[in-house]
Amino acid sequence: MNTLLSFTPENRPIAIAAAFTLMIILIGTAYTLTTQGTAPMLTPSYLLQQLQIGSFLGLCAAGMMMVILLGHIDLSLPWTLTAAAMMATSVGGPWAIPAGLSVGLIVGLINGFGVSYLRIPSMIFTLGVDSVLRGLMIAHTGGFAPQTEASPLMRYLAADRIMGLPVAVFVWAAVSILITVVLTRTGFGKSIYATGAKESAAYLSGIRTRWVITGAFIASSMCAASAGILLAGYSAKAYQGMGAPFLLPAIAAVVLGGTHILGGRGRYLGTLVGVILIVFLNSVLSIMQMPEAFRQIIYGIVIVGMLLVYGRENKTRL
Amino acid sequence: MTRMTSWVGRNRGFTGAFLLFAALFVGYQMMHPRGFSTAVFIQNANESVVIGFLAMAQTVPVLMRGLDLSVGAVMTLTNTIASHVVTGSPIQQIVGMTITLAAGTGFGLMNGLIVVYGRIQPIIATLATGAVAGGLALLIRPSPGGEISSDLNWALTNAVFDFTETLGFAQDGTAAWLQPIANIPMPLIIMAVFGICVWVPFKRTVTGRTIYAVGSAEGAAYMSGLPVARAKIAAFTLAGYFAACAGLYLAIQTSSGNADINQAGAYTLNSIAAVVLGGTSLLGGVGGAIASLIGAGILRVISFYFRILSIDPLMQSLIEGLVLLAAVSIGALRTLRVKNTLELFR
Known about the structure:
The complex is a heterodimer of chains A (about 325) and B (about 350).
Chain A: H1 2-5, H2 12-35, H3 44-68, H4 77-91, H5 96-117, H6 122-141, H7 152-159, E1 161-162, E2 165-166, H8 167-185, H9 187-197, H10 199-204, H11 209-234, H12 247-256, H13 268-287, H14 292-310
Antiparallel strand pairs in A: 1-2
Helix pairs in contact in A: 2-13, 3-8, 3-11, 3-12, 3-13, 4-5, 4-6, 4-11, 5-6, 5-11, 7-11, 8-9, 9-11, 12-13
Chain B: H1 2-10, H2 12-31, H3 38-63, H4 71-85, H5 90-117, H6 122-140, H7 150-156, H8 160-167, H9 170-173, H10 186-203, H11 206-216, H12 218-223, H13 228-254, H14 261-277, H15 289-309, H16 313-330, H17 334-337
Helix pairs in contact in B: 2-15, 3-10, 3-11, 3-13, 3-14, 3-15, 4-5, 4-6, 4-13, 4-14, 5-6, 5-13, 7-8, 11-13, 14-15, 15-16
Keywords (chain B): Cell membrane, Membrane, Transmembrane, Transmembrane helix
Membrane topology (chain B): Multi-pass membrane protein
GO molecular function, one term (chain B): transmembrane transporter activity
């Protein structure tokens, strides 16, 4: 009992976010019980469907977390995702997925080079890369929705089910396990935390911080690319602006999960909980048929409110 | 002369940005068939006001090492407010403008209070309040519209002559004393009065200086007894005010209000780009709002070129992105000069 209540500072946000997620589900259930007399939110099929939708955001947030742990940010996510999806669908066939992933690899290399070697603030460099990618894709598609279709394998990964469980959830789980292992069990993971906490100290300790930063940006872009490939598989095609709705929720999920926006602190489990929180918040709001205006307001208030509970900085300034 | 040289040395980013802007702008005017004419100046000025104000808005939090991701949304919010209240008799219109500016300033104040007393990182706090502002804007104006008088639109989006003529003073704009300034575009006057004339005096106050000090070294500023909390609140409040100026002008320019959330996001990102292009460091402490105006000017002139160069519209966003990347990479040249690698990690 004692262990349950005395959380370490790292785990407190995760516990509170998880409790809040449960509260959202309960509120949604209470709402449907009073209005329709049923509780669709508690049925397995509904929960699984939410997880399937959440897997796209989950992949984006997983990658975003790697760069946020360094105190950087990856604003090129929207068009990395879209470019990977468009390349995958236009190559098609067995090479669709490698094509999409290589887009992620290249974008990650460029981002990493700009941030770690040229020392341009990631906020502005990734923003520039995002608009270059958008320009490339507009030139590639001629500004129209691409006519190409997702390959069968992409559709299988995104929309099919194994033993009743969506395959996309397995992909998300595999990436999650991979990232957890990398962050907690490998030298690269430890280097990410060290570099994020204090880059000069990490450098003086012999960590090749430039490689670490480049590696994290590659991970971020690869995650965004896989989300794009899955999303293209889910909707059977790629389309303009498919990545835009993921950027801010991905950042919000990482931060709500207790990762510090200036880097150095955070657990992957928190990001996972943050994603689930946002997915359920969205779905409860759509069950309540909340107009877009109120959704935005509630969304903002939830982020500020949650952070007021556990995301506050220390008062000392030195 | 030595003072001049040392000023240039201390403001290398600003000087570079200014030279780039001047070269681009003069080049554009020379290539334009009706270059250096009042009509072209007015058009250019009109298209630069909104991003100019937003760049100024973004500068103030950036100077103290924060970031305000809500400036675009506050602009949208005040834009929708203005489309309701800036109407009726001239007095009512002025009251409406005051209400609009007060609303934006109040929203900025709220941002500041959340950052200072809520102790939440600015980037994430303003991300959230930006969503709130966007939602409020959608509530206020679910579909685009508004009835801002066309007289007001005409008076404020043309030359000083048209302004005085519409308002009917200075002998309908023909007074002799007015002639030297009759052809200056009104948007520039608005930028100067509501932007520069607010920023420059503010920068010289203790609060203004503290913003720079916080950006350079917050701990040192605090230990020196500077009003750190007040400066932070003031920075976000001022950002809200400038964003409201942008929203108000957008409303007058388009004679309507439109709660376009995507547009708000694009403007926020462009405001950051303008700040960086102007030579203000995202690490805080270096730069200024005037420099960001130049940065915003560079962004705008680049898009002006697309019109006269008849570049394939499909290539425009690619070129914009490449130019932005190239411009910020110029700043990266300093990494080649650094002898001690540790100096890179600030």
